[in-house]
Fold this sequence. Notes:
This protein has 336 residues and is an alpha+beta fold. It is 28% helix and 27% strand. It has nine helices and 20 strands. It has helices spanning 28-40, 92-102, 117-123, 165-168, 192-199, 207-221, 242-251, 269-276, 305-323; strands at residues 2-6, 18-25, 45-48, 54-55, 61-68, 73-78, 81-87, 126-127, 130-131, 136-143, 149-153, 172-182, 229-233, 239-240, 257-259, 265-267, 283-284, 287-289, 296-299, 332-333. The strands form six sheets. The protein has a five-stranded antiparallel sheet with strand order 6-7-12-10-11. A hairpin with a 2-residue loop joins strand 6 and strand 7. Helix 2 (92-102) runs antiparallel to helix 6 (207-221). It is globular. The mean pLDDT is 95. Residues 127-128, 221, 232-233, 236-237, 256, 268, 270-271, 274-275, 293-295, 330 line the site of uridine-diphosphate-2(N-acetylglucosaminyl) butyric acid.
Amino acid sequence: xxxxxxxxxxxxxxxxxxxxxxxxxxxxxxxxxxxxxxxxxxxxxxxxxxxxxxxxxxxxxxxxxxxxxxxxxxxxxxxxxxxxxxxxxxxxxxxxxxxxxxxxxxxxxxxxxxxxxxxxxxxxxxxxxxxxxxxxxxxxxxxxxxxxxxxxxxxxxxxxxxxxxxxxxxxxxxxxxxxxxxxxxxxxxxxxxxxxxxxxxxxxxxxxxxxxxxxxxxxxxxxxxxxxxxxxxxxxxxxxxxxxxxxxxxxxxxxxxxxxxxxxxxxxxxxxxxxxxxxxxxxxxxxxxxxxxxxxxxxxxxxxxxxxxxxxxxxxxxxxxxxxxxxxxxxxxxxx
Length: 336
Ligand code: EPU
């Protein structure tokens, strides 16, 4: 068990104080050992994947930070499908490349998303018309409190927009995830950004080509993690009732609406921040709303969690004053 380890380098925000205890787990046994240590010392456990959707407080965390480092990627055939069996610590974008090499469609629209497989499942990542839940089969988990292992299937995983069973039940640590992809799947390029790429002649015939196109689109929208800190979209797009969406669309002409299967309507927060509130580049300390995509918070080197929190609070208040909507964070904070 390492002590007093700065967490900033383990996050894509490059923000955050030290972990009282820190350990990397390469196996289920090592996860169990870390959990036993935390139980014996009555300490909370914070699970860390790629740190790409995470804000660590400036004062750090008084507990055990458990970095998931089981990174194996394996394949199995199951009839016409391929099962992808991965350790929770495997890098998500590497999994995309592995499927690209096999030529199997299913997750290519989720290319270029930083972080690990475990984080992708907890967060039910989604982009360009695809969502992790579309391919999820099951995950193996360990209960932090008891050390017991169990399996959570698709039916039990309660996936919703950036939400899951695993996000609601933080006592489970995902150690392994299994994704199912069918050989009859085809490219899904109906999302406006991908349609535009196709129209301009970008090839989109294979999973690897689609992944390449998605990475190129994302590169234009997101800060470069090597230069600036970011955790991608900082807020969720609000889900509102059809009635509220209609009345907002009347007040804010041009507001993009995305009707959901459950009857709710997702409204574009980036559009409100940009067109209605002119908040592109709005900053507090070293944190600002990114110019090319204001849903994204970008942090200069040296920015603090306090800066990000203050920015988020001001933005939430401005959105509430303009729309009456209480926006929610997509990014998680250790200890909250
Ligand atoms: N828009 C503006 N001004 C801007 C940028 C966007 O008005 O500066 C408007 C446009 O009308 C655009 C709309 O906002 O059509 C939506 O923008 P975009 O398609 O870029 O996506 P988003 O809703 O901002 C969501 C996800 C992203 C995901 C993209 C692409 C959330 C919170 N964010 O963003 O996911 O990559 O769609 O599918 O759901 C993430 O979760 O971290 C993330 C980056």
